[in-house]
User: Fold DNA mismatch repair protein MutS from Mesotoga infera.
Amino acid sequence: MMKQYLEVKNNYKDCIVLFRLGDFYETFFDDARLVADELQIVLTSRNGNPMAGVPYHAIDSYVRKLISAGHKVAICEQTEDPAQAKGLVRREVTRVMTPGTIMEDELLAGQANNYILTVSEKKGTFAVVLSDISTGEVVVTSCESLPELLDIISSFEPAQILLRESLKTLKKDIMTVSGAFIEIFEDWNFALSSSLRYVKEFYSLASTDHLELDSSQLEALGALFKYLQTTNFKPMKHLSLPRVIKRSETMQLDASTIENLNLLSSQGKGSLIAIMDESVTGMGKRKLKQWLLTPLTDVHKIERRLDTVQSLSEDRLLLEELREYLGGIFDLERIVSRLASDRASPRDLQSLRNSLRILPYIKQLLVSNPSLRERGERIVLFSKELELLEKALQDEPSAFVGEGKVIRKGFSHELDELRDLLENSVEKLKELERREKEATGISTLKVKYNKVFGYFIELPKAQASKAPENYTRKQTLVNCERYITPELKAFEDRVLSAGERIDSLERSLFENICREVGNSAKDLQELSTVLSELDVLQSFASIARKYGYVRPEFTSDGATRVEASRHPIVERFVGEFTPNDITFGEEGRFFILTGPNMSGKSTYIRQIALISIMAQIGSFVPASRAVLPVYDRIFTRIGARDDLAGGKSTFLVEMMETATILSRATEDSLVILDEVGRGTSTFDGISIAWSVSEYIYEAIGCNTVFATHFTELTELSQMYSGIRNKTVKIMETEKGIVFLHRVIEGVASKSHGIDVAKLAGIPSVVLERAEEILRVISKQSALDKAVRVLTTDDLVEIRRAKKGKMNRNQITLFDT
Ligand SMILES: Nc1ncnc2c1ncn2[C@@H]1O[C@H](COP(=O)(O)OP(=O)(O)OP(=O)(O)O)[C@@H](O)[C@H]1O
Assistant:
């Protein structure tokens, strides 16, 4: 057996091999030491070799721990019945489990997608394949630079990354943005010819042309399929055709913007996803996250989502009913994936049946509303599959197949008989005993059972001579004789083997049902998509009703007019939120926003970005009216952040993020800047902030808001007609300042930093001294005067002359 083990281990050197021995999965040698340590189980030994094992029925929780600790686990099963085996039982690895290839609910973390991401590269363009094996989703995209690749990785948070060997130097960079299990996959796995073959075979296609994948994307997709074949062994027919995300069809959000705007992570402050999520299914929750990461840029698609949200939000009863029905739908995406890859459990079929039962109600609800009819008609009812499940499956099937508690009575005559036999064996024996008593006339005749002889008929010695001919003597005791009859022997055979036969019959019936329902996997996946989208859209309708959101309208000239807008997250946490207008257009497309500390600048500028993201994923927005452009990208440079582990100081990070904006923003982007230039000396900071602003305004020309305490920057409005100043109003009272949070035209007179320091509890002696210093240095400062010089005619002329030279190609990024 150890020889057998070592052969297996030799083929799976990079895995912990869990070797099935009876009721345990055992590990040996170094694996045993490691497993004992990771799982905190006892390290024992077998013939002097280290060994550690876990009971087979608790395997899931142990595997989960090993995988989350970053190990690959090979499951080596006994692949023949030990009772039938001649000599050593045959054992084979039936599955290699890795963080990105698991699909069991018990192993998956919560409701989030569990992506495996594959990367290839050609001439500086990265091909990226993202696949969630547990839901069957396959997404393909490309990007042009490492920072963009890192953005994709940090936003989609894959559980595992397959990195082409020639790209292994990127591992360090990837590890700075992702905790994924990174596996280097040898280059030959990415060879185009074999990848093409794999993709064609996998999808049973004659040609891959219509998939619209470039050669690099095909290589990455083929490599993924090769990897899955070496880990999962079972068919993975549930994986959908690749959906190509063209970067031009979605709004680009880089990793720092996702973080700065708190789109996903809550960290106690509330995130956009948290306040928008009123979905009632796991599929809906995953879809919402995907939508948030990829807002649309196609107005028609956005309007289609908005139409549904509007119809649902206008009909309270319909919305409530829909929510209730959807609440009864299980995680079909994952169930269907397990069905299609032969890993479904009886509970999966039960959940599928219960979900299918609800479909007619949802469909009826939607088709009866003219504007929702089209969505309703996309819901297929799967009556055939439901009928089979109704007939075949018990109301509450047990979790495991084989005990006879899964298949409903009446579905299989043979199974019913076997179960009957087991359940009624006592009755049946009594009946046999009564018949034998009657036939022999011996009232003291007994039918008995013991482990050595099985079933037998017992007659007292005195009556033995009356034993009929068909009685065969089995044993003679002092007071009695024991016999067997052909009928009793047949009964015994049936009873003893009934358990085993129930087990195998139920298994094969179950497999047949799974296969039959699994044939509709593709259509069931389509149903999952329809239902998950519906769930997100009802979630949008629910929040729109609850919080008074309005339907956004879109313009094509970049003009923006949002009236009485609110910050979707902050408004949920403050007692009374002061709404503000947002405008971009002829009168100004670049705003310098000054205002005291704590006045609401950051809130206002984030709110502008958040409202656009909400609108472009198809949601209503917190405002009384919203006319918006469709942005291709949103950039934010907000807050102080360092990356000490990556060797980057706060100011370097700030400048790198700014450089990214300058190189990537287009005329159709939105740029939100908060305190750029604050991480260095005032003179350096203002100079950088000033020239960055000029560059964005002149060379890029996109809608921009720049919140700053450098009031000197407001002088820019003197030089450029499209740069305007805004400030946040406060009221100075005897007791201190009152924050009104109202954004108005103009420039802040003071920063009121010392007032805020007072609110924070800085001792009064420190505050008084600060006031004194402020009075002196404000008088002495030559900065204001110096900045004003910049707007004098001569310097403006020089600037104009230079403007022609402004060329975006001159920008070099630190990180490209
Ligand atoms: N429009 C508003 N209505 C109600 N409360 C608001 C509004 N805007 C901001 N606030 C409240 O004021 C607090 C401070 O706002 P914010 O952080 O936006 O100020 P700031 O001007 O950016 O400050 P600093 O310059 O110190 O960074 C917020 O946490 C929020 O509670």
User: Anything to note?
Assistant: Residues 570, 574, 577-578, 595, 597-603, 741 surround adenosine-5'-triphosphate (CB under 6 Å). The CA atoms of residues 273 and 289 lie 7 Å apart. The first helix runs from residue 2 to 11. The radius of gyration is 36 Å.
